[in-house]
């Protein structure tokens, strides 16, 4: 599971698809989804819950991949920005050093 991920997404479409579950079953499934999202541990389910689990697991995994991709892209953007700042600072220091050297002559 993705490091630093704050939770899982529970979509309205998913809730609608699970409307036939009673409150106990729904609560169990949501708890298992959260556990799987945070630890990757597969729940032990039976009956209807076992039948719907593969679809829910796939959605959680897809969301996890999408989250990881966005995090990588944002980290790359931050690194690129700071590389530019460091390069500008290095150029500024180089220019200042040269100016001081020329002035001293």
Helix content: over 70%
List low-confidence stretches: none
Q: Give the tally of structural domains.
A: 1
User: How many H/I helical runs?
Assistant: 3
Largest sheet: none
SSE topology string: HHH
Form type: rod-shaped
Report the end-to-end length measured between terminal Cα atoms. Answer: 62 Å
- Overall number of strands: 0
Beta-strand proportion: under 5%
Helix/strand-derived class?
mainly alpha
Quick synopsis:
The protein is 77% helix and 0% strand.
Task: Walk me through what this model shows.
By secondary structure, the chain is mainly α. The chain has one domain. It is built from three helices and no strands. Helix 2 runs parallel beside helix 3. The termini are far apart. The mean pLDDT is 89.
List the defining traits of the structure above:
rod-shaped, mainly alpha
Topology at a glance:
Layout: H1 12-17, H2 23-39, H3 47-104
Helix pairs in contact: 2-3
